[in-house]
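Page 37, top half.
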Amino acid sequence: MRESNLEFIESTPISKAVLRLAIPTVFSTIISIVYNLTDTYFIGLLDDPVQLGAISLAFPVFTFLQAIGNMFGLGAPSYISRCLGAKKYEEVRRTSAVSVYITVAMTFFLTLLVSIFMESILSLIGTSSDTVEPTRKYLRLVVGFAVILILQIILPALLRAEGKAKEAMIGMVIGTILNIILDPIMILVLHMGVSGAAWATIIGNFCAVVFYIFIYLRSNTVLSIHPADFKPSMRIFKEVLKIGLPSTIAQSISSVTLILFNNLAAGYGDQVVSAYGVAIKMITMEFMIVFGYVQGYVPLAGYCYGAGNIKRLLNGLKFTMITGTVICVLFLIPFTLLAPVYMGAFTTNQEIIRIGIQFLHAQAWAVPFMAIQTSVMSTFQATGQAVRAMMINLGRQCLFYIPFLYISNHLWGMSGILHTQMASDLATTTLAVLLGIPFLKKLLRQNK
């Protein structure tokens, strides 16, 4: 392992350390977003609301698959960062190997289950007689090659925990460039529709995974995917799952909330489902970029917490929260002024554009506060505060979202459900502040 990967975490000025980790992570996040938007964009060029709707309807299942990867993809980096701070390098090797192999095993099991219950899932996610067949085609491919998609999540996540944000980013670039090249060929030239979008994603992810495996096998790193380091222990599972499991539950619940939303929205017409499918990608984009930026601070936070350097941790949190809020304020531009341009890039259907703009304008009220929410949640994850992290995670997609969804739909109809995510985010940010203040005061007392 190159000591320089950890030396800058320990001693480099806060702003430089956070930015050095955050910028490649943000770039990786943007690349991941381009990945998702590319499929939607080229399917949108077909000007076929049915196939566009199929991509939207399949999104909850895709999100659920990502949640499985994030069980260890979020839990393991938190523990690894703390172990690096405490100089427990053998534990780092074991944790990384265990995380990769257990995730692969879980993914194969999940692939089998989803394949068996495919028809029930198609009914559950709200497909209509028009959208059921293209949605089925898309899901069969995505689920069949789910192990590739999951490895593309966990392998770079572990690299970022060691400070190898640049290597993690390069893999994302490789996959995205291939996806961008293959999407128009398979969707527009070969006329494969949603199946072409799925194949482009699979091939791009496969090439990224090959690159990551090369890094693990040939690079000078303390991380390991060697079978000899696969030595599970209750300690590893406890430390990883206490952070990763709540995150997985929260992300799985987000799949459920998307299904609930689609079923309610279907009552107002397929165009509402399609509009939300496009608009939610902008909402997800904003959240992912801010979350990606904050993830640059997480290895520093975990390392400093493990090393007992509380002052440096708190300074990192302050810098991240302030600069992250600046990013959030800048996001008001695409959510307000550029909303018509964004929606128009994916469809020419004026009703879909109109409804999508309403979604984005509603969400704009919560955008400036997202860095506060994500910074506090990530601090809890980095320091092993599983319950607090889980409450914030669940707040956004469950504790607040589901009640708000049904109450708003009952009281205000379609206008109500348009504002549900905004109300949920504002409530979750308030919860994060209420949970964060006592914890930060406790850390300050420890620092004295």
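Page 37, bottom half:
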Amino acid sequence: MGIGASIFLIAVGLILALAVNLNVSGIDIHVIGWILVVVGIIGLAMTALIFAPRRRALREQTVVRDSPVVEERRYREDI
């Protein structure tokens, strides 16, 4: 689950838990909303834990040059 899906689940869960006033027999909409919020937070935390080490490892592999880049332009004067 990515960051976008986690945030979507959190948003939908908060809407169901706090903003919807609907009574369905046998189903508690507020509990389903809070479950979606918890699943979204767990997904967001897992995404951060899984992808953060990869990004850190990629940064360590980048090549850093200590010498400056020099650009030389040569013009022909015989034209």
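Margin note: Residues 3-59 form one domain.
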